[in-house]
Every structure is written in C-alpha cells, then in structure tokens.
Write a structure and sequence with these properties.
The complex is a heterodimer. Chain A is an alpha/beta fold. Chain A has 14 helices and 18 strands. Classes of the chains: A alpha/beta, B alpha/beta. At the A-B interface, β2 and α3 of A face α6 of B.
C-alpha cells in the first residue's frame, strides 16, 4: 500500500460495521478514530469541502455502494472498439495526487471511499454478461493497485474474470508494485494498463506516484509473468519542450520493453469536461496544468491543437509498433 | 479572524480575561481584541444558529478564518468531570442530521460524538449510550456551514456533569479556565489547518491587456494565458517587450489586438 496511507479518521456505515471485511480494514489502523455514519456519502459529499486542506491528512470511508453499479463509458474514454463499454467504481478517491485528475473536478473530497459489497457488483455483472461480452474499466476513480491491501478487490476481480471469459477487464494504474501479477494467471482477459508519462510530467504533476523507471520495471515484470499489458500515454501534457520529452519517452519504452508483447497503446492529450475544469480552476489556482488556457470544444476543455498532437503522437509510436495496436480517441468513436 | 463561540457568559468570562477582550457595541454579546472575536450565543440551538449566522454573515470571509466553539457539555457515558474532548461528529437530535468537521491537525487525542438537543439533558432522557450532549453544537455547525468549510470549524468540549447534578456558574468558569491551554493549542492547530496559500500575482496585467485594446472577453483570455505562463515559469514579459520594440504593440484597434493576442498565444504556448 502507498506509504502515505495513514488515516486518522475512518468513517464506517453502521450497517457494515460488523462485516468481516470492515473489521479486517479497521484492524490495520488501530490508532484511527472510527466514526459510525449512516451513509458514507454524507461525509464524502459534504458542501464546501477543501480538497487542498484534506489532502494533508486523508480520511477513509467504508461504505456499501447503492444504486447504479455500472456506468456506460464516456465518449472521451477509450473503448478499444468494444461494442459494450462500461466502467465501475469499487473505490472512489486516490492515494496518488495527480494535479490533472478528473476526480478533483467531480468530487470535493480528498477522502478515499471503499465500497465493500463486491458480491453485489458480481451479481449485477453476471446479469449484464447474459446480453453478451463487454469491456469493463475498473479504476477510473481510484488506483486499485495502490489500495489492494485494504480492499482485496484486484484478487476478487481476477477470480471473477477467470470464470467469465466474455468479460474484458481493464485495471489502470501508476503503481510500481509487482507482487499482484500471480493473481492474473490464466486471465488473458484482464488487462493491466500502465499510465506512463515523461519523468518531467511525473515530477511536476503526478505527486506521490512511482517514477517512470519504476513503472517501466513493473511493466517488464508484468510481461515476464504473462500478464496482458496495455500502455496508456494518456493524458499527454504540454510541458516546456514536450515534443522532445515524449520522443525521449517512446525511445526509452522501445529500449526497455519488448513492445511486440504489449497488447496495445492508448494515446490522448489532456481533456476535461468544461464544468469540471471550471471547478478545478477555482479549487487549484496554483496548478499550471489546470490553469492552462485550454479551448472548449463540444463541452470539453482541450488543447487547441489536440488533433495534431494526437496525430503526432501516433506517428511517433508507429516507428516502434504496428499501427493497429495504437488507439487514439478518434479510433474509439 | 478567529471566531470563538460560547453559549454562556460564565463560559466566556475566563476567555475574556485571558485574551483581554473588550466588549463590542451591539445587540449581540461580543468581545474582541483585533484577532479574536468571542460571541456569547445564549442557550439552545435556535440562539446558537441565529447568532452564529448573524456574526459570520456580517463579517467578510477569508480562507484563513476559522470558528471554534468551546464550552461545557454533559457526558452520556459517565465521562470524568473536566475531561477535554474534541468533537468529530455532531448530531442534531431534532432532525437526526449529522455533521462532520474536518480534523486535519490537532493536539488532542480524545474525540467523541456530540448530540445537540433543545432541552436540558438528564438521566431520564434517552439520547445515546455514548458521546456527549449539549444544546448548541450541531446548530452552530449547520449555521456555520453556510459560510465556512468543514476544516474551518472546530468544537471543543469539557465535561461538566453526567445529567444528575446542577453546575454553578463558578464551576463553569473554573472548567473553562482549565480548558484554556487546550484551546490555545487547538487555535495553533487551526492556524496550520486553515493557512492561506500565497496568491499568484500577475504583474501589470491591466496595462498589458490595454496594449491589446482588449474587450472583457479578451481580458479573460489574457488573464488565463498570463496566469498559466506565470505558473509554468514562461517569460511572457520578454515576448510582450519584443512586440513593443517591433512596434506591433500597442495595437491600434481591437481587431489588430485580437491578431496580436493570437500571435503571442502561439509563441507562448505553441
């Protein structure tokens, strides 16, 4: 687990207080104050919260997820040609602190909220699978690798995927941990998707995340252990000399990783729903990546030359791998 | 500004003496010293919410303002008299609504839930078998939430009784005097918790926008561009100076200004 995870306050929904999974998580934090609440969302969605203040000492919320469990993928997310594309959230909030992360536009809270009712997800997913295969992204609203010690969600999802070959699961991560790959044995339908950025972007904007070299080591280990691996050069962020930075990144990937064994690569420059961007600008007045003067196109804030950037990135990658393996957002439309 | 609240004058008295606060004119009982404003709300949730709302609504709000409510309470599970407790959950007994202040920094180890009701609690009242009881906390939090964030509010209580004895004003003042060291430590903790980040200043923004004969929309665009460049460490001033030297700025009219702005935008952010 990420070393910064030390929750001084843990809010627990009364109805799951005696659940063994709750007990297991609480046992890891004997010094934390445990507060019983009716709904986790009463804490997570409080008005006027300060993300910047809360991130100095995060709280943990343990809850049962009610209502919708699976959502249709948004048009600005990669579907990889899947005809049925969903995402789900078994945890909300992230121990990493990426300045550009959309979570900071959607939610006002820096807390990590974990839903413990995995069985409800599996039951509903089995119903969805009756209508045919589907692609499901698991970690748009958290980094599951970083919290596996607490949740055990990766192990549970891998077991489910093994029994349901019609399901293609994507677990996105910036983590460098390599001890979870064994649970993906005989799970070619689980894709471990590594988000990779130039080190300058990591240093400037992806706080508390592993370095590029550590992520590359994790990719190599994942391939060596037979995992299905996707690389996500997404979001591409314009920093000073960004073209050189991304050229160096792709050179490094070519040198360090056997790219022929990579399932595919997704690319995409920064994009953010306009209302989220507006909120983020208000909440994070000191972040260069958030304060960049983006243009608004179809309700999304994008670089004015985002099509050229994506094309350029595609051209760069085509030097190293088959073009069929490179997915930009336009391919997914 | 530090907004201190108590329900009773007997609670406020030792604090007034300790911080040398002076009575402020007006219908609300207030005492201040330039940094701290202490308000005596009166007893009960309606008094607490109305006075709290009036005080916080009247003053301009700043990111480093915070509210601390300090006072006596009853212990629902035989807590020791004089125990000092930080509140991490406030439950309004009337509505059942719960409120949660953010506790990011604190010097106190002991935390509990505070139940707020409209009547004086006694052993016969059934509230809960744990936590503390008062008649103002949740109401003050709810009123404060209109103006402040959850990390800008703190509730500090000292146990005065367990519902079976009456407490005299002298005892109340005595307990509050003992609370002062903890209160001072919590003020320091709240100063850290609510510390304001330095503002990003864009030098000569107005004068720069004037060079483009900028409309309101263009001024917004110029602001965003210059803010980004300042944060990213891009030397936008050198680019503007160069355009002035080349005679391309100031623009003769708005249409030319728009053209120049596009050129400069391209130069600065590609």
């Amino acid at each position: 687990m990420n070393s910064s995870a030390n929750f001084s306050h843990i809010y627990v929904e009364s109805e799951i207080r005696s659940d063994p999974r709750t007990e297991g998580i609480l046992a890891r934090f004997p010094d934390s104050h445990v507060i019983l609440v009716q709904r986790g969302s009463d804490v997570f969605n409080r008005p006027r919260q300060s993300f910047s203040a809360q991130k100095k000492s995060r709280s943990l919320i343990l809850a049962r997820k009610h209502g919708t469990l699976f959502y249709h993928g948004a048009p600005v997310c990669h579907s990889f040609h899947a005809s049925r594309f969903f995402y789900t959230t078994t945890a909300v909030g992230c121990l990493f602190d990426c300045e550009y992360c959309w979570l900071k536009g959607i939610y006002a809270s820096a807390s990590l909220m974990i839903f413990i009712n995995q069985e409800d997800y599996f039951r509903e997913l089995e119903e969805l699978l009756k209508d045919g295969s589907l692609f499901l992204s698991l970690s748009y609203e958290t980094d599951l690798f970083a919290v596996e010690e607490l949740t055990g969600h990766i192990h549970a999802w891998a077991s489910f995927a093994r029994e349901h070959p019609d399901l293609v699961l994507e677990i996105r991560t910036k983590s460098s941990r390599t001890d979870l790959f064994r649970c993906f044995e005989n799970c070619p339908n689980v894709i471990v998707a590594y988000t990779l950025s130039p080190q300058s972007v990591i240093t400037a904007f992806e706080h508390h995340t592993p370095s590029l070299s550590k992520r590359i080591q994790a990719v190599r280990k994942a391939l060596a252990e037979g995992c299905t691996v996707r690389l996500c050069l997404d979001p591409l962020i314009k920093v000073n000399g960004w073209r050189k930075e991304y050229e160096a990144l792709t050179d490094t990937l070519d040198q360090e990783i056997d790219l022929s064994r990579i399932k595919d690569v997704s690319i995409g420059s920064y994009r953010q729903s306009e209302p989220y961007q507006r909120r983020m600008r208000k909440r994070f007045p000191y972040s260069a990546v958030i304060q960049y003067p983006y243009e608004t196109e179809d309700g999304y804030c994008v670089y004015s030359d985002h099509r050229e950037i994506d094309q350029w990135m595609r051209g760069l990658l085509e030097r190293y791998m088959e073009k069929e393996k490179i997915f930009s957002l336009e391919d997914c439309e | 500004m530090i907004f201190l609240f108590t329900a009773l004058y007997a609670e406020a008295k030792p604090l007034i003496e300790h911080w040398h606060l002076k009575r402020k004119e007006g219908p609300i009982q207030q005492f201040e010293n330039g940094e701290i404003t202490l308000t005596v709300t009166g007893t009960g949730p309606i008094a607490a919410a109305s006075v709290g709302g009036a005080v916080l609504g009247k003053n301009p709000r700043h990111a480093d303002d915070f509210l601390i409510s300090a006072g006596i309470c009853a212990g629902l599970s035989h807590q020791k008299k004089g125990s000092i407790v930080l509140i991490h959950q406030l439950i309004d007994q009337n509505s059942g609504r719960a409120f949660y202040p953010d506790i990011i920094f604190t010097s106190l180890k002991r935390e509990e839930t505070l139940f707020t009701g409209s009547r004086v609690w006694n052993r016969e009242s059934s509230v809960a078998d744990h936590g503390l009881y008062d008649m103002e906390g949740a109401a003050l939090f709810e009123a404060g939430s209109l103006f402040l964030s959850p990390h800008q509010m703190r509730f500090l209580k000292t146990v005065s009784d367990t519902g079976d004895t009456l407490v005299t004003p002298q005892e109340v003042s005595g307990l509050m005097k003992e609370l002062i060291p903890s209160l001072e430590a919590e003020i320091e903790a709240m100063r850290r918790q609510c510390a304001k980040e330095e503002e990003v200043l864009i030098e000569n923004e107005e004068e720069t926008a004037d060079l483009f004969q900028a409309s309101l929309t263009m001024r917004r665009q110029i602001h965003q561009l210059l803010l980004y460049c300042t944060l990213a460490g891009t030397d936008w001033k050198a680019v503007i100076q160069q355009k002035i030297k080349q005679g391309l700025l100031p623009a003769e009219n708005r249409s030319e200004g728009k053209k120049r702005l596009e050129e400069i935008r391209h130069e600065l952010i590609g």
